[in-house]
Design goal:
InterPro entries: BrxD (IPR021228). This is DUF2791 family P-loop domain-containing protein. It comes from Candidatus Nitronereus thalassa. Pfam families: BrxC_BrxD (PF10923). It is a single chain. This protein is an alpha/beta fold and about 775 residues long. Among the domains are: about 190 residues, 3-Layer(aba) Sandwich (Rossmann fold); about 110 residues, no CATH class; about 200 residues, Rossmann fold. It is built from 31 helices and 16 strands. The strands form 4 sheets. A 6-stranded parallel β-sheet has the order 1-7-2-5-4-3, with helices on both faces. It has a 6-stranded mixed β-sheet with strand order 10-9-12-13-8-14, sandwiched between helices. Strand 12, helix 24 and strand 13 form a beta-alpha-beta unit. The longest helix is centred in the middle third of the chain and has 20 residues. The radius of gyration is 27 Å and the shape is globular. It starts with a strand and ends in a 5-residue tail after the last helix. The relative contact order is 0.12.
Amino acid sequence: MNMSSLDWLEVMRKEYFQSYLRQGGSAVKFVVSAEEEVRRALPQLFSKMAKNDAYVFAKADAQYTKIHMVDRLFHKIAKQIDWDGLAHLFLSRLLVENGYQVPDDRAAFSLQAIAELNDREEMLLRRELRSWLEKAIYRDSGMCQEFRMAMVRLCLAQLDSGDPNPFLANAVKEWLCGELRLISALKDALIFQKVARHNARDMLASLVYWVRLVGKGGLILTLDISQYMVVKRSKEPDAALSYTAAAAMDAYEVLRQFVDGTDELEGCLIVVIAPEEFVKDERRGLNRYEALKLRIWDDVRDKRRQNPFAPLVRISKDSASPGVAASGFTQGTPVANGEEMLHRRAIEALRAGVPNRDAVQVLGCAQPEIEGQFRRMLENAQRSVTEGTTTKGILLDGGFGTGKSHTLEYLQELALEKNFACSRIVISKETPLYSLVKIYRASIETILIPGKRGGTLAEVAGELNFQGPQYADFYEWVHGPSGELDSRFAATLFLYERMANDRELSHRLVRFWSGDPIGVVELKRYLQACSASNPYTFEKISQTDLALQRFKFASRLMVASGYSGWILLIDEAEIIGRYSLKQRAKSYAELARWMGGLDASSYADLGYKSGLASVIALTDDFQSAILEDKGDREKIPNKLREGRSETDVLLADQAEAGMRLIESERARLVGPYDRMIEETQEKVRTIHASAYHWAPPTIPSVERLSSTRMREYVKGWITEWDLKRLAPEETVDLEVTPLRPSYMEDAEFETPAEEDQAGVGTEDVASPTELVGAQVG
């Protein structure tokens, strides 16, 4: 079944490099080969293709780069980018677009030379250029704020090349590459935090956007993960890095996030290179991490040949590839307009069985009852703040491949249309349901703000109107006597308003709201400087309680900033079946919290008066497999009550509440029926035709059985049309290997939760530099 590496590369060059990527498409491809020679050659071949087609290329090899740490990965990429060259390209284009001539020789490129060439006064030209850069970069929300500030500095530095460190350009490049020792060196550039786990993904998305903004086709990135499959540690002192199985799982989670995030990127191709162990090794391979496997596995495939467009392909140096090279496939399919690109991006997502906003837009959602229930939930969430009520959550119930993720994506678009902020959270090893601290961090990192490209809590806070009635209500609630919030929130909100002109302090305060620590000594010093009349006192509080209060504070902050509320969409909650007994108990308790199933009007009820509501997706066999067959319904409460400690008894009660909700409150997705299948097939056929400028033939559907999932139908249609388009004369004989989630307990998912119990004390002392550089986690 292996296909020729050259045949696959030719399809990638023609269909992706020459059309799809250049017009703004993105994709993640996994390439498996047993031949080390092939794996080693791929980065060089992609580098050559990128150079020929005016793309920026970067690579990372797990032998030398910890790919499972996304900040380290970004730094590795940044070290391969010609930052000055890109800034020079952008500035040159900007000048030409505004009617100016620029020197042909880059070495002669300076503000003085440009002023002389265009008969302008240098000082006035500098002022004009700053204004252009503000409009073209600083006001462009396609990039995160720190990245925009960095690019402005690099562009300005191109005008004064004689200065050894113009406009902090060297410090900016050290910051991008992870080599800056003290972040305080960039204070004048209004950059106050290092690139870390919580912002590295936004930085990478900003880089991709910047690359296209300067006129390049996009970013091509190869990631060789072969080293994660190596079990034995080398005895050589200078040998490659070695990894535990847990690190391999972390790497798969990073890759899973890339797969799910392709619709946030434009013009980006990520090629993941792996050995055969990746698909065979039970200890370190793909089978160990279902969240990634369910997104890329070729569960619907032709019996004789591979689909070169599939998210996972197996290649070798000399394999024959029937129906690819022989098809006369000479050039890529052009993308003529925005609608065609929408359809291409939708098809690309559906190939992997991962619905994105493009797929949802063209296919819609055939779940009217759930849509109606969700719309009512939005109305209740919006009223909850003013009416003092609790918003009950929704628990989606559906089998694997029946459309839970598709439905969540559709509901997210509805919420954004209703002016709600949204966070999409996939339960995983990195984000376990039982850890409120990590769920909060994931919620902030994935937040979408209506009308903006991505979003951060800083952008939400920046929209506060200190003179408006909504802010007055919010301020009164935060400072109120109810005891719902720790005094750190009241103190930081007071300082945020009073010290609004101190950009560094404002950043630090918002980072505290987002999950970072903050020093009490520093808070007291600033409060004293502001002559605060309110006697703020700070007591010790656990990280879990602090996360709980952050959820309520952030949601009310969004309402005060003019948004309707905050919706959390929690996917793949069935992974809790793989936790240990105690962690499953905590997860059931958290599920009850998110569903509004704990004591109404209580401190622990996140849906009470907050504008916050959630939807949780769970597999339809979870109750029978875990609550009944594994015995959680009886085993967990009995085990917890054996010790008779107050904490365990309370957890037992809360876990029981969560399990009762699973048994009684599920909103079941409608499974595929004949009319739904036929209508969906026609929609997919129409968008495939539009995306590739051809007429897909009428084909028989994947065999209609009660066990056949909609995912299998859709992947089957697309696979057959892809192969027919490449080789019309070849027959297609599909086979389906049903994928089902596993509920076997896995110790690798039992992430230590010490940080959840660690308290925040009254003597938390941190210097300004430490606070500025603080990282989530």
